[in-house]
Amino acid sequence: MGAAAHIHSAEDARRLARRRLPWMIFDYIDGSAGAETGADRNRAAMNALTLRPRILRNVSNRSLGTRLFGEETARPFGIAPMGMCNLSGPGADLMLARLAARHKIPHGVSTVASTPMEQIIEVAEGHAWFQLYFSGDGTGTFKLVERAKAAGYKTLVLTVDVPEVGRRPRELRHGFKMPFKIGPRQFIDFALHPRWSLTSLAAGKPQMANFEMPGYEFDRTESRAKADWDTLARLRDAWPGNLVVKGVLDVEDSVALRDAGVDAIQVSSHGARQLESAPAPIEMLPLIREAVGDTFPLFYDSGLRSGEDALKALMAGADFVFFGRILQFAIAAAGEPGLTRLWDVLSDEMSIAMAQIGVDRIPTHPRN
After folding, report:
1. Number of Cβ atoms within 10 Å of the Cβ of 162
2. What residues in the chain have per-residue pLDDT under 70?
3. How far is Cα 279 from Cα 194, in angstroms, rounded to an integer?
4. Which positions fall inside the FMN hydroxy acid dehydrogenase domain (predicted)?
5. Residue 175: which region, alpha, beta or left (left: phi > 0; alpha: psi -120 to 50)?
6. What pairing do the DSSP bridges indicate for beta strands 264-267 and 107-109?
């Protein structure tokens, strides 16, 4: 029996990944800011949210399809942008891209992806969004915007909740750095996890592929604090496609973003990886929905661990949601078969929950 067959939930994938990954890599993927109370608060808020069971409704013909920026998708959930995914397993970026192509859902391609943005969008058959960090004085940032445009990206996701990189003690204790560096401590860690180490060694050290261009060297610790509303206006003028702003947790900011001409807002706490004391995004979601109105596109990520979680977010006001680190856990646990298996689990969880609450289609506004 392959490892993928042992994945019956996201927690199964996490448990298997914890066994197989070096401690440094697992804690980079799994860790949150500070003492990680923000992650606990996110989970508690999601657990406290309930769905209303309804009976005697014909829900025998259910569909998980929806529409996103005018196009059909096979699922109401996609792949959140995640940096250095190939650390979870060689070729992880392209595994995610193939998943996106099969289900016609967006693959969020991180600024710090391990694979060039051009290759990912090709393998994803166009179903890829480019996630952008503003850093330094913005010179390199706008070079990436032009590169994404030339590669054929139609949607740009500006992440705004990292003016400075949050302190994640689990990372710091292991000496995790980008670009990736190996010292004595890391060597011992890798030696104790030979399966990961040998396959990763054979594939070559993961790189931040989107920075291999003249005149731009990425420093993960470089301040991103210079970005302001004028920066957003410049980006809106420079980008002809869909512009999504990700990392929003404030009602006033949400209204201002809508009025500034962005095409969608993504409610997110960056998986509780930045500000430990940030509010739980699932609690802010209905407040932001009420403020921006029923027709404005509103997306959600952070702390989703099941298809039922995703359905809760959709019922609370999101039009579309994104899964993140649990997909990397599935890859670490069992490679591409593990990713496929977890995706099927998430789909089944959502479909069954839909039947239990008496709906056969993804809910749209207004919710009831």
Report:
1. 19
2. 1, 178-180, 212-222, 365-368
3. 39
4. 2-368
5. left
6. unpaired
pLDDT of residue 322: 98
Cβ atoms of residues 251 and 139 within 8 Å: no
Query: Checking DSSP bridges between strand 298-301 and strand 264-267, what pairing results, if any?
Result: parallel
Which residue matches tokens 């979680």?
Answer: 309
Cα–Cα distance for residue pair 326/6, rounded to 1 Å: 15
Q: Look up residue 211 and give its amino acid.
A: F
Active-site residue flag, 6: no
Instruction: With H, G, I as helix, E, B as strand and everything else as coil, classify residue 109.
Output: strand
Residue 209: its pLDDT value, please? 85
d(CA 201, CA 179): 16
Task: Quick: pLDDT tens for 83-129.
Answer: 999 999 999 999 999 999 999 999 999 999 999 999 999 999 999 99
What's this model's pTM, rounded to 2 decimal places? 0.95
| Max Cα–Cα distance, the chain, nearest Å | 63
Q: Which of 103, 127, 270, 365 is catalytic?
A: 270
What number does CATH give the domain 3-50+66-357? 3.20.20.70
102/106 Cα distance (integer angstroms): 11
128-132 and 264-267 strand pairing: unpaired
